[in-house]
Design goal:
By secondary structure, the chain is mainly β. The protein has no helices and eleven strands.
């Protein structure tokens, strides 16, 4: 397993931007898939975006064109650039690592709050 630590959450107005970072405790080169998930109060945790070791990305329909996931294997870090934020993006954002949709390690989460 790998330990993951998210950072970069906070309070932002609608239309604003945030960049989340997920630092891994070991090299991310060997991690097949890394992803960002969010969980709003009373709702299930959902995939926001994922990126494979080869750089292939996948996005939830609700964030396509607004969010960008990237990974820097030299820094063992995955990023989520979030633009044009809306109140519906308010949630706790978690970083996950694993293989495909099977997540074997989770971070502790970072709160993102978008005010209208």
């Amino acid at each position: 397993q790998v330990q993951l630590a998210e950072s970069g959450g906070g309070l932002v107005q609608a239309g604003g931007s945030l960049r989340l970072s997920c630092a891994a405790s070991r090299s991310t080169i060997s991690i097949n898939t890394m992803g960002w998930y969010h969980q709003a109060p009373g709702k299930q945790r959902e995939l926001v975006a994922s990126i494979t070791r080869g750089g292939r990305t996948n996005y939830a329909d609700s964030v396509k064109g607004r969010f960008t996931i990237s990974r820097d294997n030299a820094k063992n870090t995955v990023y989520l650039q979030m633009n044009s934020l809306t109140p519906e993006d308010t949630a706790v954002y978690y970083c996950g690592a694993g293989v495909g949709l099977v997540v074997t390690s989770w971070g502790q989460g970072t709160q993102v709050t978008v005010s209208s």
